[in-house]
Predict the structure.
Amino acid sequence: MRIGGPVLGPVWLITARLAAAALFLFAVGALLGKRLQARRHWRHDLLYFRLIADLGPAPALTVTFLIPLFGVLWGHLFLDEAVGWHTVAGGLTVLLGTALVTGWSPRGMAQGNKGVAGA
């Protein structure tokens, strides 16, 4: 990472890492006799990389950070799962971590720049 990042740049580095992982998974799939569905979700990856290019890596990761919160929400709404104090505390921790990573601040919201640092 320290050598490849400055030499290749972030886009080529992540492309090389994903290509290596894909080749490894194809090899494992071939050894196990499984057929991998590589063509099914490639558009989602392109959209995600476009999101990273447009917003930067930290704001793009908020999608990943918030997946557990939506999982709990859908579980509560559709499966009638219980939400206890520990679930709420975990959700608040996720929101706080997301705010710290993206640079969100309440002062920024009051000033009208969407609460993101540098906006």
User: Anything to note?
Assistant: The chain has two domains: 1-40, 56-119. The longest helix spans residues 10-32. The two ends are 29 Å apart (CA to CA).
